[in-house]
Design goal:
Blueprint lengths: L18 E5 L3 H12 L5 E6 L14 H4 L16 E5 L3 E5 L4 E4 L2 E4 L2 E4 L3 E3 L11 E2 L4 H12 L3 E5 L3 H12 L3 E5 L12 H13 L3 E3 L4 E5 L7 E5 L4 E4 L1 E4 L3 E3 L17 E2 L11 E3 L4 E5 L4 E4 L3 H16 L15 E6 L2 E7 L6 E5 L7 E7 L2 E8 L2 H13 L5 H4 L14
Parallel strand pairs: 1-2, 1-7, 2-3, 7-19, 9-16, 10-11, 10-16, 11-12, 18-20
Antiparallel strand pairs: 4-5, 5-6, 8-17, 13-14, 14-15, 20-21, 22-23, 23-26, 24-25, 25-26
Helix pairs in contact: 1-6
The chain binds flavin-adenine dinucleotide.
The site of flavin-adenine dinucleotide (FAD) has 36 residues, from helix 1, strand 2, helix 6 and strand 22.
Length: 425
């Protein structure tokens, strides 16, 4: 079977009585259920989620919800009106694709089509699990536990200068906490951006009054006692006072429960989906943070842990489940990935996908408040990072989508709209 697309196990149709079960009631799961109804699917749709809360959106957790300026972030979806059965507080424990049965904490659930949308879970700091004062930031419960920590305006140590670490540090500084961010690499966002691009972002921490310590590895976390704060001990012996420690060192697909199912997983534990987001098991799809897909656009498999992927992917899944009247394959899933981050008073947006081999080109001064970095491959824009330049992002995203050839000289002029920097044919 090809890497790009697997054969369907059955001919899809919008038939009454067909049972679609979606596991994971986050963005990707909810959007899949909604997209099925939007496409006129008339069978049953059951959405199973381990968390007890009404399904909610995650990006506000490190922003408004954390600061208490928003109470929650529940999706504005009327599940009853859409005929979507919600089964919350129910954990999927395993799947038997041959029998078309999902095993859950509430017993077996038969399906005709299963959609895996279990998202990702945060990587834990070795040895810190269960230590009082150590927090993760992935769920609504995590954010609610962290709110009073911010309100106390104490010493906070953030482990990891990635997207979540930067957003948490921003909120903690806004709340008046003393913030130290420890990062094992030599710069923030070391996994996502090259040194030259991340370097100006390191200065944002100091500007906001947060201390960023790079090349810093946590050796252990010592819990505090009554009236005494805890400590984060670094491998060079430095002891940082910490009333709270927030760990933001990445996330990995929440797929351990699929062990033994025969569903193919990749090197990062992600479900290996094809270009229609079908898995290696017939009648099982996978979407969102838990799955990777082959991108013809970028010539490699992508594992995207961002909101827009959990919005777009479900449309492909729903189209594939419902099928077309003629029975032909729907368009493959091959998006230009997109995400945004709000950190240290800046709006940071990224579209596309780049590798170290691509050429980097700047628009604007990295020391200034607004700049863009473009990545070019064979003269075409493949990715861009825009700081405070949303117009660049919007235009760049379209140019990437279209594969338009660019004129590097025109592109380097920040005063020129990006869309006016295309190469003359
Ligand atoms: C704090 C925070 C801030 C973010 N901010 C941004 C941002 O600014 N911009 C951006 O682009 N992206 C952001 N993201 C990323 C974005 O939220 C995710 O990419 C998106 O939530 C992925 O959706 P998902 O449905 O695939 O997974 P999830 O949102 O993780 O949902 C999966 C759901 O499945 C449930 N589940 C897991 N295992 C099981 C099981 N065995 N049985 C039943 N249910 C299960 C989980 O409990 C969870 O509710 C942020 C993420 C976090 C955590």
């Amino acid at each position: 079977m090809s890497e790009q697309t697997r054969e369907r196990g059955r001919e899809p149709a919008a038939e009454t009585g067909r049972r679609v079960v979606v596991v994971g009631a986050g963005m990707a799961g909810v959007q899949t259920a909604v997209a099925l109804r939007e496409r006129g699917f008339t069978g049953t749709v059951t959405l199973i989620g381990a968390e007890p809360h009404q399904p909610y959106d995650r990006p506000p957790l490190s922003k408004a919800v954390l600061l208490g300026t928003a109470e929650g972030s529940a999706f504005d979806v009327d599940f009853d009106a859409l005929g979507i059965t919600l089964r919350l507080g129910v954990e999927a424990l395993g799947v038997r694709p041959g029998a078309h049965v999902l095993d859950t904490s509430e017993g077996p659930v038969p399906y005709d089509v299963l959609v895996l949308a279990t998202g990702a879970e945060p990587v834990r700091l070795p040895g810190a699990d269960g230590v009082p004062g150590v927090h993760l930031l992935r769920t609504l419960d995590d954010a609610e536990r962290l709110r009073p920590v911010l309100a106390r305006q104490h010493d906070v140590v953030v482990v990891g200068a990635g997207w979540i670490g930067a957003e948490f540090a921003t909120a903690a500084r806004e709340a008046g906490c003393a913030v130290t961010v420890v990062e094992a690499a030599d710069r923030p966002l070391a996994d996502a951006l090259p040194a030259g691009v991340a370097a100006p972002m390191a200065a944002w921490y100091a500007d906001a009054g947060a201390e960023l310590r790079t090349h810093a590895r946590v050796e252990r976390v010592e819990p505090g006692g009554p009236g005494a704060s805890g400590r984060v001990v670094l491998d060079d012996g430095t002891r940082l006072p910490a009333d709270a420690v927030v760990v933001g060192i990445g996330a990995r697909p929440a797929t351990a429960w699929l062990a033994g199912s025969g569903i193919e997983l990749g090197a990062h534990g992600e479900v290996l989906a094809d270009a229609h987001l079908r898995t290696s098991a017939s009648d099982v799809h996978a979407v969102g943070d838990c799955a990777s897909f082959p991108s013809a656009r970028y010539g490699e498999r992508l594992l995207v842990h961002h909101w827009d992927n959990a919005l777009q992917g479900p449309r492909t899944v729903a189209a594939d489940i419902v099928g077309s009247p003629g029975g032909e394959d729907p368009a493959p899933y091959d998006p230009v990935p997109y995400f945004w981050s709000e950190q240290f008073g800046r709006f940071v947006q990224y579209a596309g996908h780049h590798t170290a081999a691509d050429t980097t080109l700047w628009r604007g001064e990295p020391s200034g408040p607004a700049w863009t970095v473009c990545w070019l491959r064979e003269g075409r824009l493949v990715a861009l990072l825009a700081v405070g330049r949303p117009r660049d992002l919007a235009q760049g995203r379209r140019l990437i989508q279209a594969g338009t050839a660019m004129d590097p000289e025109l592109l380097a002029d920040p005063a020129r709209p990006l869309k006016a920097a295309t190469a003359v044919a």
